[in-house]
């Protein structure tokens, strides 16, 4: 697995804040991979209050933070009751 920084970003920060607001344990992120021919695609999951949310997209290994952002956006939209905004800009994905 490639190394990656554990840096926060806007969606991850918003999800962490929502967990605090709703008095839930903080989000726990996981990284998943899928071998595709000669390359590996990477994605992310995030567990919040016992529910696992999956990122919508697969990413190149250098974009693992984007995968975490995607999973955080999905989780936050479910927790807050809205649908994720698919026009939130370039994801630098797979």
From TrEMBL:
Lineage: Eukaryota, Fungi, Dikarya, Ascomycota, Pezizomycotina
Protein name, entry field: DRBM domain-containing protein
Superkingdom of the organism of origin: Eukaryota
